[in-house]
Amino acid sequence: MAETPPAPVDVMIVGTFHMANPGRDIYNLKVDDMLAPKRQAEIEAVTKTLARFRPNRVAVEWSADDVERQYPRYLDGTLAPTASERVQLGFRLGRLVGAKGVYGVDVDGDFPYPELKAYAEAHGQAGLLTEAGKKIMRTLDEEQAALKEHGVAGILRLLNDPARIAADQGHYRDYLRIGGKDGQPGVDVLTGWYRRNLTICANLIQLAKPGDRIVVIYGAGHAFLLRQCVTETPGFRLVEANDYLPRT
Fold it and tell me: Which Pfam family is one of this chain's hits (predicted)?
């Protein structure tokens, strides 16, 4: 008699913007005060609709140690106010649904962009980097408009549109145009990026149990590779965030 296969793990990747605007990326969205009453109401509405997925675990873009320190303080009300999406979406959702746990699955990664830029400037390829930057700035302008016109739900729906996610991944692929016989700095950048995202996905896979329903709150730039990893991993199913995010 054939054994019954284990229940699948359903995973929803929610790509988000950085609500606290730390300015750590090469290109950064300008964000207003997410702790203001209007934005808090919008974030609360988003969290309530995500809760309809009934997640029993929530993963965020923080290290495991950070979450182990900060989440208990959030639950007992001693965590200082912060606009970080890890707290505003991740911690808030975990508390709302009574999740088994909120988990930090992030890792540091190597992203040698300065070396890429130096190579491009030294080999007459700086124009390629400039054009790639212009495309990224156009996408940021679209995101800025979505936040201004449609609020938090509007920008999240934009960031989690599958076609948009695929297009954003193309920005990383543009780096492969930079290089030559004496070096491949674009490959080095993407190798570090892929390694970081594969390690994040490994952390996610290793915490999951059959039948789990997991929401992953992460910077939207990670969405393509995390979605790909979930989709290609046996026993895991990808759930579309836009099936749950509020319509604007």
Answer: DUF5694
State residue 182 phi and psi, 5-degree precision.
-100, 10
CA distance 171 to 41: 33
- Please check whether residue 245 is in contact with residue 156, taking contact to mean a CB–CB distance below 8 angstroms: yes
Instruction: For residue range 88-143, list pLDDT tens digits in order.
Output: 999 999 999 999 999 999 999 999 999 999 999 999 999 999 998 899 899 999 99
Q: What is the sign of the dihedral through the CA atoms of 200, 192, 13 and 78? A: positive
Q: Which residue from 4, 102, 121 is spatially nearest to 59, judged by alpha carbons?
A: 102
Check: CB of residue 7 under 8 Å from CB of residue 210: yes
At 209, give phi and psi (nearest 5°).
-120, 150
pTM of the model: 0.93
- Geometric angle at alpha carbon 15, from 207 and 78, rounded to 5°: 65
- Alpha-helix runs per DSSP H in 107-233: 113-122, 126-159, 162-173, 185-207, 223-232
CA distance 177 to 174: 6
Instruction: Name the phi and psi angles at 237, rounded to 5.
Output: -130, 135
Instruction: Report the distance separating Cα 163 and Cα 180, nearest Å.
Output: 31
Distance of alpha carbon 70 from alpha carbon 239, whole angstroms: 28
